[in-house]
């Protein structure tokens, strides 16, 4: 079995028209490719929750705030299609850039508030790029539901907000983070870790989990976060960009653990920026 690869809005629209005529509802799993088990878990959830599933693969230039990161982003379309085929995905939409950003494109979708903190504070313009492309992909796929991973928890909240605020009519479903056996959150960027960095990388999740446990036991937030960041650096990370306790719904800062709250971190190792988060 192979997955149909569609590269234009017109080719996609043809399929969507046929599905709509048959009364079938479409779900979408947006990705930037280099697929791993985390992505496949979203696809399986989507298949359980909609009649037809479109996976999108688009390395969106507008959400990269570094040209080097954009250039280095893994592009593995053939093996991505091979991974999707056995799942029976209905279509892989791989739009050419001009299908998303045609000549003269001049609109930016910007979610305020939620994007001021965490990755939004450290990657200027990133969430504008995400919100803009997700709006386009929701419209182009005519999705009624969309599946996103909790690994990118802030992104999940941003997309929920944008779908509600712009009346896009897309129900946004969050799925748990899929991890390697040693706890490292699966990420397309993990392939860029050299062996020593890969071996040290699980310290990020381990430190977050231990800090979350301490917070649940009543430990003070500031001290616990500072100690966890120090542990991550000691394990071999070059920099901890942020490590913060925040409320889930609006991502506001918290002085102590209140349910539902999460610990969020971004840290650099071997020239790669990794993110993770855990419930408290
Ligand atoms: N380990 C994971 N578990 C569950 N969902 C994931 C995981 N990794 C990524 N996703 C989700 O897959 C979708 C597409 O993400 P994307 O293509 O950026 O992959 P990625 O592995 O997050 O890449 P990168 O970490 O390099 O940005 C997003 O909704 C993201 O949250
Ligand atoms: C949602 C997304 C596909 C938009 O480009 C991207 O940010 C991602 O892969 O998480
Ligand atoms: N997974 C979020 C996409 C990005 O890092 O740009």
From TrEMBL:
GO (cellular component) term, any one: cytosol
Record localization: Cytoplasm
Keyword RNA-binding: no
Chain residues that bind (R)-pantoate: 63, 155
Chief location category: cytoplasm
Pathway(s) the chain acts in: Cofactor biosynthesis; (R)-pantothenate biosynthesis; (R)-pantothenate from (R)-pantoate and beta-alanine: step 1/1
Active site per database record: 39 (proton donor)
Residues annotated as transmembrane: none
Pfam families named among the record's database cross-references: Pantoate_ligase
GO biological process per UniProt: pantothenate biosynthetic process
EC number: 6.3.2.1
The family this protein is said to belong to: Belongs to the pantothenate synthetase family.
Subunit-level organization: Homodimer.
Identification of the protein by name: Pantothenate synthetase
Source organism per UniProt: Roseivivax isoporae LMG 25204
Organism lineage: Bacteria, Pseudomonadati, Pseudomonadota, Alphaproteobacteria, Rhodobacterales
